[in-house]
Design brief:
The chain has 5 helices and no strands. It has 94 residues and is mostly helical. Helix 2 packs antiparallel against helix 3 and helix 4 packs across helix 5 (76-93).
Protein backbone atom coordinates (compact mmCIF):
# COMPACT_ATOMS: atom_id res chain seq x y z
CA UNK A 1 0.00 0.00 0.00
CA UNK A 2 2.61 2.51 -1.10
CA UNK A 3 -0.14 4.98 -2.08
CA UNK A 4 -1.44 5.22 1.48
CA UNK A 5 2.10 5.57 2.80
CA UNK A 6 2.69 8.45 0.38
CA UNK A 7 -0.53 10.13 1.49
CA UNK A 8 0.41 9.72 5.16
CA UNK A 9 3.80 11.33 4.46
CA UNK A 10 2.10 14.23 2.67
CA UNK A 11 -0.24 14.73 5.62
CA UNK A 12 2.77 14.70 7.97
CA UNK A 13 4.50 17.27 5.76
CA UNK A 14 1.58 19.71 5.82
CA UNK A 15 0.56 19.12 9.43
CA UNK A 16 2.54 22.14 10.64
CA UNK A 17 0.70 24.49 8.28
CA UNK A 18 -2.29 26.08 10.00
CA UNK A 19 -5.63 25.60 8.31
CA UNK A 20 -7.59 28.62 7.19
CA UNK A 21 -10.40 29.89 9.33
CA UNK A 22 -13.50 31.14 7.56
CA UNK A 23 -12.59 34.69 8.57
CA UNK A 24 -9.03 34.40 7.28
CA UNK A 25 -10.18 32.92 3.97
CA UNK A 26 -12.67 35.77 3.57
CA UNK A 27 -10.00 38.36 4.39
CA UNK A 28 -7.51 36.86 1.94
CA UNK A 29 -10.01 36.59 -0.90
CA UNK A 30 -11.05 40.20 -0.25
CA UNK A 31 -7.40 41.18 -0.49
CA UNK A 32 -7.08 39.40 -3.81
CA UNK A 33 -10.24 41.08 -5.07
CA UNK A 34 -8.67 44.44 -4.19
CA UNK A 35 -5.49 43.37 -5.97
CA UNK A 36 -7.37 42.52 -9.15
CA UNK A 37 -8.60 46.10 -9.15
CA UNK A 38 -5.01 47.30 -8.83
CA UNK A 39 -5.40 48.46 -5.23
CA UNK A 40 -2.65 46.34 -3.64
CA UNK A 41 1.11 46.06 -4.14
CA UNK A 42 2.29 42.84 -5.76
CA UNK A 43 4.13 41.61 -2.64
CA UNK A 44 0.87 41.66 -0.63
CA UNK A 45 -0.88 39.89 -3.46
CA UNK A 46 1.72 37.11 -3.43
CA UNK A 47 1.50 36.80 0.36
CA UNK A 48 -2.28 36.43 0.21
CA UNK A 49 -2.09 33.97 -2.67
CA UNK A 50 0.58 31.89 -0.91
CA UNK A 51 -1.41 31.74 2.33
CA UNK A 52 -4.57 30.68 0.48
CA UNK A 53 -2.71 27.90 -1.28
CA UNK A 54 -1.12 26.71 1.97
CA UNK A 55 -4.36 26.95 3.88
CA UNK A 56 -6.25 24.89 1.35
CA UNK A 57 -3.74 22.04 1.07
CA UNK A 58 -5.90 20.17 3.56
CA UNK A 59 -8.93 20.43 1.29
CA UNK A 60 -7.56 17.92 -1.20
CA UNK A 61 -6.68 15.48 1.58
CA UNK A 62 -10.12 15.86 3.09
CA UNK A 63 -11.87 15.23 -0.21
CA UNK A 64 -9.77 12.15 -0.95
CA UNK A 65 -10.42 10.73 2.51
CA UNK A 66 -14.12 11.43 2.28
CA UNK A 67 -14.52 9.91 -1.17
CA UNK A 68 -12.21 7.01 -0.47
CA UNK A 69 -10.86 7.67 -3.97
CA UNK A 70 -13.66 5.50 -5.35
CA UNK A 71 -14.05 5.05 -9.06
CA UNK A 72 -10.69 6.59 -9.80
CA UNK A 73 -7.58 5.14 -11.33
CA UNK A 74 -5.32 7.78 -9.77
CA UNK A 75 -3.57 7.23 -6.46
CA UNK A 76 -4.84 9.23 -3.45
CA UNK A 77 -1.74 11.45 -3.55
CA UNK A 78 -2.25 12.09 -7.28
CA UNK A 79 -5.82 13.18 -6.51
CA UNK A 80 -4.57 15.58 -3.84
CA UNK A 81 -2.02 17.00 -6.27
CA UNK A 82 -4.69 17.44 -8.95
CA UNK A 83 -6.80 19.34 -6.44
CA UNK A 84 -3.88 21.61 -5.62
CA UNK A 85 -3.24 22.25 -9.31
CA UNK A 86 -6.92 23.10 -9.71
CA UNK A 87 -6.63 25.65 -6.92
CA UNK A 88 -3.56 27.18 -8.57
CA UNK A 89 -5.36 27.42 -11.91
CA UNK A 90 -8.38 29.04 -10.26
CA UNK A 91 -6.21 31.64 -8.56
CA UNK A 92 -4.37 32.36 -11.81
CA UNK A 93 -7.62 32.86 -13.72
CA UNK A 94 -8.98 35.31 -11.23
Amino acid sequence: MQHLSDLRQYVADISSIPRLSHEEAHHLTSRLADAWQGALPSDLVEQARHRLIEGYLWLGVSLVKRSGARLCTLSPLDLVQEGTLGLLRALDRS
